[in-house]
Amino acid sequence: MCGIVGYIGSQQAPAILMDGLKRLEYRGYDSAGIAVHDGAKLCSLKSKGKLVNLAGKLENTPLTGCLGIGHTRWATHGAPSDINSHPHLSSDNLIAVVHNGIIENYMEIKKELTAKGYKFISETDTETVAHLIDYYYTSGFDFREAVFKTLERIEGAYALGIICKDYPDMLIAARKNAPLIVGLGEGENYIASDIPAILNRTRKVYFLNDNEIAFVKADSVEIYNRNHEKVHHDVYEVKWDIKAAEKDGYEHFMIKEINEQPKIIRDLIEHRMPENGNRIDMDGIKLKKDDIDYISRIYIVACGTAYHAGLVGKNIIEKITRIPVIADVASEFRYKDPILDEKTLLIVVSQSGETADTLEALRIAKKNKARVLAVVNAVGSSIAREADDVFYIHAGPEISVASTKAFSAQVIAMELIACHMAMEIGRMSAEEFKAIKEEFYSIPSKVSAILQKSITEKELAKKYVQSKNVFFIGRGLDYIISKEGSLKLKEIAYLHSEAYAAGELKHGPIAMIEESSLVIAVMTQERLYEKTLSNIKEVKARGAKVIAITLNDNKLIGDEVDDVIYIPHSSWMLAPLLAVIPAQLFAYYVAYLLGTDIDQPRNLAKSVTVE
Ligand code: M6R
Question: Does any ligand 1 atom lie closer than 6 A to the CB of residue 491?
Fold first, then answer.
């Protein structure tokens, strides 16, 4: 989604803004712009398309000044165009605004301002904010008050960066339901929607809370709540290295992140299942026997890939604890009037910790007194801060829009939570735990082994790149990995792909199978081998080509399929961690051959902060 960066200090703002925007490109965008205070007036440049277009304009018309705001826009209100790009300026060039989120009551405000003589030139909701601040400012309120007044009027979600022609020493930032941080430098300060935008300049940040406003000067930052009360924030020191947000020699972030998985999995396992320990380290998360006994229902709620990790969690928790779990996508859950009370445990899963629907699901649950456990990657994110307990997956920054390493870490987290619960309620013995722990410890090297043989997926990508329809099939946990593999192929290769529970094929989808169809059968659940095999035979009989992803000791698969990707043997519970790797690699290589924009696929955004 959209990205924000702002700077105030003694250096030239345009270069800093452009560099920050470049580092936010991964979030997905379709246009960009900057506004700079040149000492006397506000100047802006905006351009549809990639940053390189904006850079071209900047080269022809250089801007100078030590205060500025920049934005990458992911269109919601109005098509991508120069005019609709941010920053939006008031007609008298007094105020410039960049905005992430959606102003829900903008039509009503626009009508009022139009009646007062304000002229709107864009189709965006954001332009309303610039004019409204201008209205209050020109009515006699000072810049700060004009912003306070505006925030009282606007409804919806926003992270805002605002500058004013008459205040060359002030940058204002405000947030509600959209992430925004203030970065602290020496004699200079920043604002940004995301840490990578400014991590090469500072590691010290404040995470703004909802309904807070920061008045940022070169040598000071003051934060206020909506009641005009000053609030204190602890400085958060970002631990991860800038290298983690760079490609480090890889051609794409996605392939870099796929290759990071053995290390991330190893670190997570060693952290949560210490070698000499005989329990899972839940880091103070309140999930003891009494807490579990008190729970009457568990929901797991998330979106996209995180939802798939949640589905793995649902299956495993149910299987090893025998506690029923409902898994749902957040955009559905929030409008279902779900049954929630203090005996409900809601587990939300989110890489970014900022996904609007997941955040809202959490808020609905909390309003109804449910307990919320968040499985999150981004430290300090909204979901992490609002949940009762957080299970951090520590996968490091995930830059590629297509989630890979976060998925694996989320799956591990769900598996660890399941094992912990099973042990607490006496459904997993110490011996069983010991055995499963050994299994966990073997996973990183098995993932490495699959990655080392990635030539197989590369070759298969070449062979099947022309496929028009791809069907992933599987049963049980294999069905979930099918869903994830299919999502990867759709989002980065733009290939039509569907995932079906293998047993469902003959209830309809098999009608679509023809000579040109490619079926990818995920087969890691040994007790279901024969069942899936019969489904493979059904599609083969109708002319489909079949690739199987299966365990290396599967004797049944033989000549039944066209190609096989073998993965190391693993227990049923951990097999998803292995089966997903070939699916990720296959999608990556197909996308590579098709020449798509792998790290920033069209129409997608890394962090979906609008409904
Ligand atoms: O940040 P989150 O984990 O909450 O994001 C959820 C989805 O938007 C995300 O997983 C999306 O489906 C990815 N593009 C999948 O690769």
Answer: yes
CB of residue 310 inside a 6 A radius of ligand 1 = no
- Whether residue 132 is found in the same domain as residue 198: yes
Nearest CA to ligand 1 atom 12: 304
Q: Which domain holds residue 419?
A: 246-451
Same domain, 125 and 232: yes
| pLDDT digit string, tens, across residues 10-45 | 999 999 999 999 998 877 788 999 999 999 999 999
486 lines ligand 1 (CB under 6 A): no
Per-residue pLDDT at 305: 98
Give the bridge partners for 44, in sequence order.
Answer: 35
Compute and round to an integer the Cα radius of gyration of the chain: 26
Q: Cα–Cα distance between 540 and 160 in angstroms, integer?
A: 55
Q: Which of 429, 451, 473 is the last residue of a domain?
A: 451
Q: Find out whether the beta carbon of 348 lies less than 6 Å from any atom of ligand 1.
A: no
When divided into structural domains, the chain yields a total of 3
- With b for 16 or more beta-carbon neighbours within 10 A and e for fewer, the 123-158 pattern comes to ebbbbbbbbbbbbbbeeebebbebbbbbbebbebbb
Domain boundary among 181, 211, 238: 238
Residues 234, 255, single domain; the answer is: no
| Ligand 1 centre distance from Cα of residue 349 (Å) | 10
Catalytic residues: 2, 606
* Ligand 1 nearest-atom number relative to CA 410: 3
Per-residue pLDDT at 240 exceeds 90: no
